[in-house]
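quick one before i forget lol
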Amino acid sequence: MNIRYGKAGIHSGHVTVAEIGLYKRGIEYLSDVLNTAARIQGMCNQFEVDLLISGEVYEYFSDIPDLKMKAIENVQLKGKQQKVQIYSVERN
């Protein structure tokens, strides 16, 4: 049985967290990393996969034998000047 949970995009980097508001407080997460991860996730349907990761994340997980990672291509993400290498990830 093949269960599908949704789509995900993963990228790594620094994120700024701020508590904002005087009367109604909220937590905000600010970073280009979040934008990049969202753009990567948005490409899942185009490549017909459930999980895409950036090249930066690939470096962390490339040695895990239970994961099958395949280079997709360098893609031009909206709002980015340089192309980003992305990989699909599946369980072996």
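fyi Strands lie at 8-10, 16-20, 26-30, 51-54, 67-75, 84-91.
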